[in-house]
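ugh ok fine here u go
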Amino acid sequence: MSTVRVRFAPSPTGPLHIGGVRTALYNYLFAKKNNGTFILRIEDTDQTRYVPGAEEYIIESLTWFGLLPQEGPGFGGDFGPYRQSERKSIYKEYADRLLADGHAYYAFDTPEELETMRQTDQTFKYDSNSRTRLKNSLSLPADKVAELLAAGEHIAVRLKIPANETIAFDDEIRGHVAFNSSELDDKVILKGDGMPTYHLANIVDDHLMQITHVIRGEEWLSSTPHHVFMYRCFGWTAPKFAHLPLILKPTGQGKLSKRDGAKFGFPVFPISWDSDHEEDNFTGFREDGYLPDAVLNFLAMLGWSPGNDQELFNIEELSEAFSIEKIVKAGARFDIDKAKWFNQQYLIHSDNLKLAYLIQNQAIDANYHVSIEYLADVCGQMKERVHKADEIISNARFFFEAPHVYDDETIKKKYKKENGSHIKTIGQKLFDLGENDALKIEQVIKGYIADQSLKMGEIMPIMRIGICGTMQGPDLIQTVSIIGASEGGTRLIKSVDIFDKLMAD
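structure:
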């Protein structure tokens, strides 16, 4: 078997959609599983849709995920250039071969003429039935063709699809797929500016770069017979095709789009994208507090199953378990709650110091200037209580400052004025302790409660509110050991007066 070579070939027309990341992931996993090569190719032949910064965004996204290509722009390789705009001279040679062999022809129709045809006939397509009535080298006299070629205006090269033939291929996911050629149109393969369209460029590049497997989205399935036909015309062996299922909206109805993030309130891009137009600004998974490995694990399961109940995989385990045969045909619903669950699992198993560095800037932005070790201790207490890293700071403000508001409803239910003096006494004992040892803090608090024959269930909730402002939070003893016994004591002493005033109002 030849060495596996796969490519991820995005167009730099804007930010990379999360569906594109899944395509990159499946290609990466397949290459890794088979000791093959994962290639990045930038398909920028459509210069009218080129967006500055998009290529850099694609590479930064892949880098964040750790899906680094072995070949590609900036990565080296023996089959470059890896930007199609830098390969323009290559494509004309192959278009000329198709023209010379009668598999393609020149078309001179203007965009306005074609638009008129479409308005006149809603089912219009440029094909074996209509081409003889249109302005091209098959329908015009040779002298007129020469004249139009010399004029050099509105020249396109179209693929000459034969009438009523079966064009078939075996898809690694969908099985045997067959099309009648009469259903297909004569695609433009070379535009007037000399740039190829996707249809010509991708098969020429795949052949020259020795791509063995084309793993891409389902939306390209209908174009594949054109590609298979061109392979046949050139006398080349086509790579194996695998067309991935769609990622569906959370409702399960329709393909997940870039606008669905704003509509449903979750990211659909790997990292944030800033645009001159506000409606085109998007928050990414990275900035929304997701870990890259968690997102990859989530994406891997959108359309693929390991065949057992295991859900959590690191990248090495994914590459070992991955196979194209286990990719499903049906679309996979994008469930953001499942993404949050994956992220929570990865947070729980993450190193506390690594998390601290991840949220350090967020802490600084909130004006919490603490040591990285302190932040790591906070992460250790909070990571099992959040779904995203960016929630640690917002849900743990009591680690950085005394509460400004309190859970009044619980205070009114549980606070007893006669316990106020006890809470103040515990606060004073903590203040005097002045140590941050969790065991000694526990002895002070629980020892006093036992000595005074108080009820733990009456005292501890009020203490928690006094220190944290809320009933939500990690173990209270651990919390006090992090903020410091003196700080915890000060908060308790202050809170009693606030609670007494609340009860009196």
